[in-house]
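=== RUN LOG ===
request id: a7f3
mode: sequence -> structure
chains: 1
length: 200
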Amino acid sequence: MKDFLLGDRLELFSPSEFELVLEEHDFYDSQAALNRLNDLYSYFILYSEAEPPMTRKQIKAQLSSVSKNAKRLKKSLDLPLWEGANLHARSGIDRQELEATLTSLGDEAEKLTSELKKEAAGRRSPIKNQFVVELAEFYEEYTGHKASSYTHKPHNVAEEQYQGKGLSFIRCCMEKANIWSTDEAVVQVIRRMEKSRGGN
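=== RESULT ===
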């Protein structure tokens, strides 16, 4: 989703606020991490405020179209040397970069289609659950730690039963975004994410 936003990037954390998050949760590459996190938040707001979502069947058809069209466009770039060079020079678009972008776009569309096929039948998960998954994956990418690494102390009060840096980071982001959810609900989403990966 990097650099593919409609409109301006929204800010979940300011640079100074994110410095505190970095220190507490062991992130590296702070500027790249902050940009990516604000992108995730922007997408969440975008989809939350959008029109009712398409059906799973419609989404799969649309993703399939994206994948096929990306491959077709990449193939259509095979022009004679002079015309091809002239086209890219006039457009200011490097062919190799464009081909890499189209390949990535097609691959990601196919991955999303595959993930949709694995989903159970029925109503899709709330958009906030997808936000939790994105935050968990973000945490793992920028810390190298598993979001599922937490301890469970059932005899503690409800707010302190689940403890872990990954869970603490997700809770911090959701509170900042004014999204309410219990730790138990967040943990269930993380467990389903791990299960879909083939984890225990």
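=== NOTES ===
The helical segments are 15-25, 30-48, 56-76, 81-91, 95-118, 127-143, 165-176, 183-196.
Residues 1-6 have pLDDT under 50 and may be disordered.
=== END ===
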